[in-house]
Amino acid sequence: MADLSKLENDLTTQIAGAADEAALEAVRVSALGKKGSVSELLKGLGAMSPEERKTEGAKINALRDRVSSALDAKKSALKEKAIAGKLAAEAADVTLPVRPAPAEVGRIHPISQVIDELTAIFADMGFSVAEGPDIETDFYNFTALNFPLGHPAREMHDTFFFPPDANGERKLLRTHTSPVQIRSMQRERPPIKIIIPGRTYRSDSDQTHTPMFHQVEGLVIDRKSHLGNLKWILAEFCKAFFEVDDVKMRFRPSFFPFTEPSMEVDIQCDRSGGDIRFGQGTDWLEILGCGMVHPNVLRNCGLDPDEYQGFAWGMGIDRIAMLKYGMPDLRPFFEADVRWIEHYGFRPLDFPTLAGGLST
Amino acid sequence: MKFTLSWLKDYLSTDATVAQIADKLTEVGLEVESIEDKAAQLSAFVVANVISAEKHPNADKLRVCMVDTGDGNPIQVVCGAPNARGGMKAVFARPGTTIPASGDVLKIGAIRGVESRGMLVSEREMGLSDEHAGIIEMPADAPLGKPFAEVLGFNDPVFDVAVTTNRPDALGVHGIARDLAAAGLGTFNDKPPKPVAGKFPCPIRAKIEAPELCPAFGMRLIRGVKNGPSPEWLQKRLRAIGLRPISALVDITNLLTHDRSRPLHVFDAAKVKGDLVIRRAKQGEKLLALDGKTYELDDTICVISDDVAVESLAGVMGGEESGVSETTTDVVVESALWNPLNIAQTGRKLGLHSDARFRFERAVDPAFMLPGLELATQLILEICGGEPSEVFVAGDVPDTSRVIDFPLSEPKRLTGIEIKPDEIKRILSALGFTTAGAGDILKVSPPSWRGDIEGKADLVEEVVRIAGLERVPMTPFERDENARKPVLTMLQKRTRAAKRALAARGSVEGVTWSFISKEHAERFGGGKPEVALSNPIASDLSDMRPSLIPGLALAAQKNADRGYADVALFEVGQIFLGDKPEDQLIAATSLRRGAAKISGNGRHWQGSAGNVDVYDAKADALTILAACGAPTDKVQIVAGGPNYLHPGRSGTIQLGPKLILGYFGELHPLTLDALDIEGPVTVAEVFLDRLPEQKAKPTKVKPKLELSAFQPVTRDFAFLVDRKVTAAEIIRAAQGADKGLIANIDVFDLYEGKGVPEGKKSLAIAVTLQPREKTLTDAEIDAVAKKIVDEVSKKTGAQLR
Q1: For residue A2, is pLDDT > 60?
Q2: Cα–Cα dist B800/A2, whole Å
Q3: With 60 as the cut, is the pLDDT of residue A1 above it?
Q4: Which residue in B637, B790, B780, B794 sits closest to B717, CA to CA?
Q5: Tens digits of per-residue pLDDT, B316-371?
Q6: Which one, A154, B188, B282, B406, has the greatest CB density within 10 A?
Q7: Is pLDDT of A207 > 80?
Q8: End-to-end CA distance of chain B
């Protein structure tokens, strides 16, 4: 059967040599088409004896199957080659820069971020967030907080005032967030556990003071909370906020009109290396004022100081932001300079949580 | 408040070190701000003998000195001081020493070709004074090689403590010693002054005409005094705390001010005409005070006057005319009580600071008025000689005695510290309180010098600050059994959400001043008198902001001036529509300048960003609404806005006809002019307080998701319509064709220009039909399509293109 092997050789050569799908199709038609060489052989089987048909049929069918497989294989190869060529022509320069995502470009101001951090820490301890108006009355800003008449803070020198109204009352820009303590105690009965972040104003402007700044206060009023609880809360706060395992604190007796006893709190830090490290070193850094709410303040809110007691503390948000994140100056906080905010600000999706870490 | 260690030891017997004293001071509430130990600082500077001082070969004004510090190895030093000469004793610094005033480290060097191995120093170089005319001359008997500061007696550390306003008693060394002794640092030596018997009646009388300003006034005359320089110990003490010695009489009053917190005044009896009157000044009266300045007075100011003129500003500063001098022989010493509020007011009004004002405005110990006078008399007699008159007193020293009921349980209640009754009593008594009574409640009388003690809480503070705040036990704060609920209010949550949403749109958060210029406030609907500051810190920070736009716009321009033209800024903060709490709103405001689009700004190979426009602003506004959970599908967008926006490129977001939730648009060109900034600038502002409250739902389960089993069908329609017809009108009309079937309408094309007639536009919409019961047939789809075309034509005059 030299014919069959020759035919197979010829077809195999033709299949291998087909340059494209059209040429391959021509080979297929010439072999397996109606009048193709293999089809013609199959047609010739009818004229054979049963024995011959049996042996020759098997050979021809095997030949047909092999040719068919070779055609399929070549077809796939040609198709792959064609696609590869097309794709090669489509190649893009993947080193071209793409526009950054808006969420990578936008920034949250450090003050907002730190307020969110404070909220996360104190919400975990069961505190709510209270707020109040920036434009206050003398009563809420001073009198109710036990500031004596003639206290220097009540002067134009320190405090921003508005013109007197028809009753002669001068409103003012709150000098601290403490008026919100009074408003909260008037509005709700103890137990009260709040923090009060907000804008405050003093007539002061130099390298380290701006006429507007931010404070956060805490207030706890119930029937049993004492300085020991305050100490614990502040220690917990400092550890959580500065994200260190331990913070050494020093309580110093001090004086504020609205607390008695009053204290200032220093935390130990190391300033030898140019930046501040908390939880190590030998320097002391003042970070907040605090104390037991003065009996007169409780009375001014209609609370009996023999029945209710509690404590308050206050600190500068801008200041603790500077301590934690290392901004050297206060003034750029309020200049909306995009270079500064891009550098010191936070990405919108960096939401501070206790679960994920406040700043990581 | 400054004092030296030796001064403190006048009243405190102690072996404590400087560091122990400093720690204790801070612990009891007298915060140490600094300790200056000159002897330690200057220990490297030693006494040296100048063996010879020859003229420098190359410089007329320099000398080449040979200096011996006692070790027998003379050192060559080049010196420019005119007083450098052979045989003198001077102060020498070796190479490697740091000069305190300059911080320079000395090196071996050559001056004009001659080697110099050190330096002979001046007082200024040592930081001791401004004296720089020559080098320090040491006494001839000063031992060679010894630190000069030790030889000159600078080995007395100076403490500087911050005294809180409630503790005028600690503005005297005596009071500080009492606190330290009470805190266990030594024994308090009270040294109460002994009365000095008068030899004759006081020839000058005083009358108090303003008892509300001066409750009591004491004085005496001392005649035959000699007022020269005060003795060395007194001068040294004053110099150490930064005071300049003047004369013995003046120095004695300064000493008592700092020693006993008892300011006194001395004046020359020869210059007093007639008797003294304590009264309010007359309008326009003037006084040349001891600081050399003339003050104009009025009737709010208390003065001491003689028959002719004002003699001194009571409790603040004496007058130059009646001041004591070298020639004074008869001196009047005055010790009085003044109204603290009035003293503070006078000091502020006149801008006059003095050690006397500092103490009187904090209220001095009334009971020490006369003992203070006796102590001054005693010192004057010792130092200046003379013969004292009897004491003359006008008015009455007020009785400040009072009793406070102090439950022994109170310290524990407020501080958590266990303090035994004996310890409470010991501390109070060491501080000068008297205690009486048995049982659980102590009867406590505060001393006359503690006017600040009003009640139980003040006593608790006294007890715990002496017992030690480190004893306050760290006590975990119990979290209640209450369920953990969100602690933020809706407005607080919305404030946070608005910030993060705007930042996620590529915008940068600014925090700008709450006050802006009047002109800008007025431009944005503010500037009312009740929100204009009486005492602004600067004219461009005068009025409370009615809008966040001016602050952001000015900041954007500043960024542009620095080379950042395309900036997207936002602020979420308070605005002030009036002076009442309810007039203060939280606005969320986004501002975009130049090409600061959300897709990115500036030029880019994929297509450069164009300038920002009203639609960027609208997208920001809707983002804020969505982030705050406001019903964006229910709000109406009405063309136009406030007059600071471009009238044709702005919109108002409303909920119903009256409730305005916010605005968006391009800034009006005149607004740009008024702010003196360059555009294009777009803004979006949403008033968060005005967003409707979200109703609390009884369950967190979301409504069931209903998915249609049938394929939605989309058909496109392009309408030719008058330019003034809005997209909203066309969409609303199309929607009206079949509310049940039409699930969504998108605008996918807008075209004006070639091929579209003048005054018309082509607007194309894609309408999605969502069948719910069965698949739509072609006939049904065609029927809805026809209805859509008919409705839109009927309502807007549009033609299908």
Answers
A1: no
A2: 76
A3: no
A4: B790
A5: 999 988 899 999 999 999 999 999 999 999 999 999 999 999 999 999 999 999 99
A6: B406
A7: no
A8: 90
Residues of B in contact with A295 (CB under 8 A): 455-457
Cα A328 to Cα A87: distance, rounded to the nearest angstrom: 55
CA A57, A61, A65 angle in degrees (round to 5)?
Answer: 170
Inform me whether the C-beta atom of residue A112 falls under 8 Å from chain B C-beta atoms: yes
From chain B, the residues in CB contact with A247 under 8 A are none
Q: Is B581 close to A135, i.e. CB distance below 8 A?
A: yes
Nearest to A228 among B472, B506, B584 (CB): B472
Residues of A in contact with B476 (CB under 8 A): 229, 232
Torsion of CA A24, A26, A31, A34, to 10 degrees: 140
Query: How far apart are the C-alpha atoms of B624 and B661, rounded to whole Å?
Result: 11
CB A346 within 8 A of CB A108: yes
Q: What is the pLDDT of residue A44?
A: 83
CA–CA separation, A313 and B173 (whole Å):
31
Q: Which residue of B has its CA nearest to A120?
A: B487
Question: DSSP class of residue B471?
Answer: G
Q: What are phi and psi of B532, to 5 degrees?
A: -105, 125
Following CA atoms B102, B107, B113, B119 in sequence, which dihedral angle do they give, to the nearest 10 degrees? 60
Per-residue pLDDT, B170: 96
CA angle B147–B153–B156, rounded 5-degree value: 105
pLDDT of residue A360: 67
With tokens 């689009």, the residue in question is B597
Q: Rounded to an integer, what distance in angstroms lies between the CA atom of residue B713 and that of residue B522?
A: 54
- Separation CA B256–CA B10 (nearest Å): 13
Tokens of A24: 């391959």
How far is residue B594's CA from residue B597's CA, in Å, rounded to a whole number?
8
- Domain spanning A108-344: which CATH class is it, in words? alpha beta
Closest CA–CA distance from residue A86 to any residue of chain B (Å)? 23
- Residue B45 CB coordination number (10 Å): 23
Q: Is B93 in a helix, a strand, or coil? A: strand
Token pair in block for residue B328: 């004074």
Look at residue B130 and give its three-state secondary structure: coil
**Interface confidence (ipTM) of the complex:** 0.88
Cβ neighbors of B157 (< 8 A, separation 6 or more) are: B4, B5, B18, B35, B36, B37, B39, B40
Q: Distance (Å, rounded) from C-alpha B283 to C-alpha B291? A: 22
Closest chain B C-alpha to A82 CA, distance in angstroms: 30
Residues paired with residue B662 on neighbouring β-strands, in sequence order = B653, B686
3-state secondary structure at position B246: coil
Residues B199, B286 contacting (CB under 8 angstroms): no
Quickly list DSSP for B417-457. ----HHHHHHHHHHTT-EEE--SSEEEEE--TT-TT--SHH
Q: Do B506 and A109 touch (CB under 8 A)?
A: no
Q: How many C-beta atoms lie closer than 10 Å to residue B107's C-beta?
A: 10
- Rounded-to-integer distance, Cα B603 and Cα B609, Å: 6
- Per-residue pLDDT reduced to its tens digit, B535-580: 999 999 999 999 999 999 999 999 999 999 999 999 999 999 999 9
Question: How many residues does the structure list for chain B?
Answer: 801
Return the pLDDT at A215.
96
Count the neighbouring beta carbons within 10 Å of the beta carbon of residue A208: 10
Asked if A261 and B558 come within 8 Å (Cβ–Cβ), the reply is no
State the pLDDT at residue B801: 85
Query: What average pLDDT is seen over chain B?
Result: 93
Domains of chain B and CATH, by start = 2-37+157-188 (3.30.56.10), 40-151 (2.40.50.140), 206-395 (3.50.40.10), 404-471 (3.30.56.10), 490-690 (3.30.930.10), 713-800 (3.30.70.380)
Q: Which residues of chain B have pLDDT under 70?
A: 480, 482-483
CA atoms of A68 and B517, how far apart (whole Å): 89
pLDDT at residue B60, rounded to an integer: 86
